[in-house]
Amino acid sequence: LPLAACRGPPTMRAARDDEDGGERPHKKRVHAGRTMGAPKQRSRPGRYTTEGGITVDCAVRAVTEHEREFQALVDSIDAHRGLILESSYEFPGRYAHWTMGFTAPPLVLEACGRSFSVTALNARGRVLLRAIKPALAAEPAVLSLEPAGDDALRGQVRISDRWFAEEERSKQPSIFSVVRCLVALFKCADEPQLGLYGAFGYDLALQFESVELRPARGSDGQRDLVLYLPDQIFVHDIVARDAWVVSYEFSIDELSTTALARAPAASVHVPRAPATPRDHAPGEFATLVERAKDEFRVGNLFEVVLSQRFADECDAQPSHIFRTLRVRNPSPYGFAINLGDAEFLVGASPEMFVRVESDAAGLRVETCPISGTIRRGADALEDAQNIQKILSDPKEESELTMCTDVDRNDKSRICAPGSVRVIGRRQIEMYSRLIHTVDHVEGYLRPGFDALDAFLCHMWAVTVTGAPKIWAMRFVEQHERSPRAWYGGAIGMAGFDGRINTGLTLRTVHIQRGEAAVRAGATLLYDSVPAAEEAETELKASAMREALREASDAARAAKAAGGGAP
């Protein structure tokens, strides 16, 4: 039954067997076999060989002073390449509370368009290049591959001249062919932590869709993909009250990383004032809403998500922004990533993009589309009034209905018939400033499809593009004033055990060359009110911008007092 037929307020019902029903998350996790995004388990110490023939020695150290170790890791992100992921928001059957991170990764995969590089960030990474070079050279999707000194490989992915059915779009040559090659090389079904961690940019989707790029790209060297392969990872499963550091040594032929230091790669934030405070003048976004409504009237679009960018001076270090956000705006996808080249992402995203993990029934893919937003009240009574208001609003219901219908259609391309189900409808998630309505959708992958296929078939979520997706993406390109870069893409991990856990890159501070930018969007429909939609983008951006100002004010105060940046 289409969701469009399921109008009206949600009704109470008994919890399904695979929903939480209110139990403590770690208890439910044990009997359901699902992690809710939390670390699956500790890695097992010992030696194993990946499917690509790489020997891995794994050591695990228990951590008792986990907060001290975590804070040291946060501090190191200011000056060294690395990543922190955190879920500080719990929701029964959906999100658990955990933290993980690393610095000094030995290797990074970066891409811009169809060009890519695999770079050793220290001597340990040079050992890994020994195995990666022949694997990439044998990959049919790689058009060219050449060394760039002793520390890097540079290549180009071919453009296919054959037609691919929609359900096979993830199989065509793209930068993800390189990602898939690396995952296959290091694959080990029993290793729960090792994988590729980082950020996926919005423009990656344009390798699969016919969209003219406006504004033009390339002049600023903006990357579309940054994925690290770490060799030492801090993990804290907060619900299970367990913390550990897992370390890996790699051996390829006669080469080994065992005697080599984990040397970090430097990348430092230096503040500067923004060149342009915002990419839309006040009132201009509302004008674009009117243009979108013209497209709705003639049937070219059903909905579209437009965004605008706000820029601020950033005197604070990324670590301080991260600490401010995790207190002010707990979320299921908190992150701080030092991308190198003085570029950082610090965010508190409320929305899952794609999560894939195995359970007794097979490879389960799940998503949680968010559409429908209202401001938090001053107290619990006003919160309740606002919840009643948003659940009674037909426009908000229509937004989420269309998003979930498109999401289910995405899954149906690669999931087993009958397995795609809405297991949570118009559920309420409450954050520091906002209340959202959320659906929860699951499906089970058909044989021949894996987690990367699931990731690609959803790219990008209808909640950041619109419907129909291709027409919405074209409208975005024609009317937004600046490229989205990382906004609307994803952050997270692709595990070498076949899992994926990613959140949409929303509620994010993008720091680049000393400037801090926040981007926020609104879902537009035929009955959208232009001024209200512009105000919604400003409200969504406000939590990030105020956290940024708070962190920057503290940094300036500390500097004035002679204490340096906090």
From TrEMBL:
Signal peptide: none
Domain Anthranilate synthase component I N-terminal: 154-241
A GO biological process held by the record: L-tryptophan biosynthetic process
InterPro entries: ADC_synthase, Anth_synth_I-like, Anth_synth_I_N, Chorismate_C
Region described as Disordered: 1-50
Domain of life, source organism: Eukaryota
Domain Chorismate-utilising enzyme C-terminal: 284-540
NCBIfam families: PRK13566.1 (NF010081)
Entry protein name: Anthranilate synthase
Organism: Diacronema lutheri
